[in-house]
Amino acid sequence: MKSPVGFIARPEGGVRYKSKKGDFFTSASIEDFKATNRIAVVEEVPMRYDGPVKIGDKLLVHHNVFRFYNNTKREKTSSSSLFRDGTFIINQDQMYAWYDGEKWNAYDRFCLVKPIPLEESDFIFGTKEQPLTGEMWVSNSYLESYRIYEGTKVVFKPESEVEYVIDAVKVYRMTQDSIVGIIQ
User: Fold this and answer.
1) Can you tell me the mean pLDDT for 65-71?
2) pLDDT of residue 58
3) Cα dist from 81 to 11, 45, 65, 78, whole Å
4) E strand or H helix at 91, and its extent?
5) Torsion-angle region of 116 (φ positive above 0: left; ψ -120 to 50: alpha; else: beta)
6) Cα(16)–Cα(75) distance, integer angstroms
7) Phi/psi at 63 (5° precision)
8) Which of 6, 24, 74, 183 has the most CB atoms around it within 10 Å of its CB?
9) Domains in the chain, please, with CATH?
């Protein structure tokens, strides 16, 4: 079965939440968006889709795709992305990057930036990263036209970063318009 508008996918590992590390739970709340699984595995691409994402690729998706909610009757319900039998329809505006089996690739106008750690003596107000700066982890074609490639140190707008952990690497998902400069 194919969808005319979205990718049909399952959460990676078959779990909606990644709230357990070893024997410990990191969150017991369905409201905690940081505990939701944000990686999907593509089972079908949309009808008439001829883009780069293929069946079996992984998608980096919005934190609400696999999330449960308590509705107005205080009943546990799924997000509107739920299709059936544990599959979800993921619209293209809910995905930010894809993994093709070799590397992560930016989707559309999105990019991924890895924060730059501070030296221990430079900790300011408990932060462990340089504010508003990072290293491009996954660029896109628009940014590459400005010679902003993987490894380029960049400056970004305040409040533009959304934290993800991919393959044990902390990165910020943001749009290309959030990148305001490079550090040489």
Assistant:
1) 81
2) 97
3) 12, 15, 6, 8
4) strand 88-91
5) beta
6) 18
7) -65, -15
8) 6
9) 6-104 (no CATH), 109-183 (2.30.33.40)
